Amino acid sequence: MKEKIEAIQAEALARIAAADDARSLEDARVGILGKKGTLTEVSAGMRDVPKEQKAEIGQLLNTARTAITEALEEKQLALQAIADAKALEGIDSTLPARAVHHGSLHPLTLIRHQAIEVLRRMGFALAEGPEIEDEFHCFDALNTPADHPARNEKDTFYFDSGKLLRTHTSSVQIRTMETQAPPVRIIAPGSAYRRDEIDATHLSVFNQLEGLYVDTDVSLGDLKGTLEYFFREMFGAETEVRFRPHFFPFTEPSFEIDVKLHAKGQVPKWIEVAGCGMVDPAVFESIDSGRKDDAFSPEKITGFAFGMGLDRLAMIRWGIKDIRLLIENDVRFLRQFA
Ligand code: DAH
After folding, report:
1. In terms of C-beta distances under 8 Å and separation of at least 24 residues, what long-range contacts does 85-89 make, across chains too?
2. Ligand 1 within 6 A of 279 CB?
3. In the chain, at which end, N or C, are there fewer CB atoms within 10 A of the end residue's CB?
4. What confidence score (pLDDT) does residue 178 get?
5. pLDDT score recorded for residue 238
6. For ligand 1, is residue 168 a contact (CB within 6 Å)?
7. Considering the entire predicted model, what is its pTM?
8. Which pairs count as long-range contacts for 31-39, CB under 8 Å and 24+ apart, including other chains?
9. What is the pLDDT of residues 185-240, one digit of tens each?
10. In angstroms, what is the span from residue 293 Cα to ligand 1's centroid?
């Protein structure tokens, strides 16, 4: 029995040593320790061992089992190490890692955040209104008569219901004054829609930022100071801004604001970025007649309003020469803002 155990142990260890992959090692394990394995079978012979030899033989069997189990484990680790090394072969771990692509905010989002940040510092609060608007809030309440060109079906996107995609965010001025009393100081960023011919400075959907300030004694000086400060905060102290007299039905006097665009590879040129003016008393009167009070009586209050094109602001901010780049989602363009 003793010699048999020793022989089995020796043979088992040799077999384990000879195994050269996971498969042959597993075969060896089953052949030795499995149900019909060599060590299992010889262990079964314990039954017939005379009592006085049992301790010694038992000891021997245990030693053999421990030695074999340890050899199996060691061999398994050694084979794994070889497999790992093979898998890593040909991989140069000193090469620089592949760059991870981070997403980033769209330039229009960046410019909107920046504009809101500057205006909030001056005390303007955010307001909003629907993009599908009725003619009353888009036109009538803004002193824009039925024969005004902005109301032309060919210039505007109408629904069968008579509603339309708002042509400007100025409708939010009306919605705000319907529910709040002076002082009112709001800004409303959002989409506006027009059947414009699409070119380097026009899109049929664009982004506006509306502003309204109503209080006692609001003057044209406040309007000019506020907007000049705004543009300098946005584009730097050197920014060239000009106010051109213009006409809007809902303001009197009215202006258009131009800012110098320094686009790459182009001669600097003025581009129109906003309309603004002192709120026309007719607008206040219309609000009061809807509210049935005199909260906005032109006798007591004045106000200024402005609406600027965020797309145009982005063009100036980054020297973008074609507005269409902002909606084409060309990653070569967008990546520059990452
Ligand atoms: N709503 C005008 C437009 O879309 C822009 C504008 C002009 C807004 C004068 C104003 C304003 O609030 O006072 O062209």
Report:
1. none
2. no
3. C
4. 97
5. 87
6. yes
7. 0.71
8. 32/8, 32/68, 33/65, 33/68, 33/69, 38/8, 38/11, 38/12, 39/8, 39/9, 39/12, 39/64, 39/65, 39/68
9. 999 999 999 988 899 889 999 999 999 999 999 999 999 999 999 999 999 888 89
10. 26
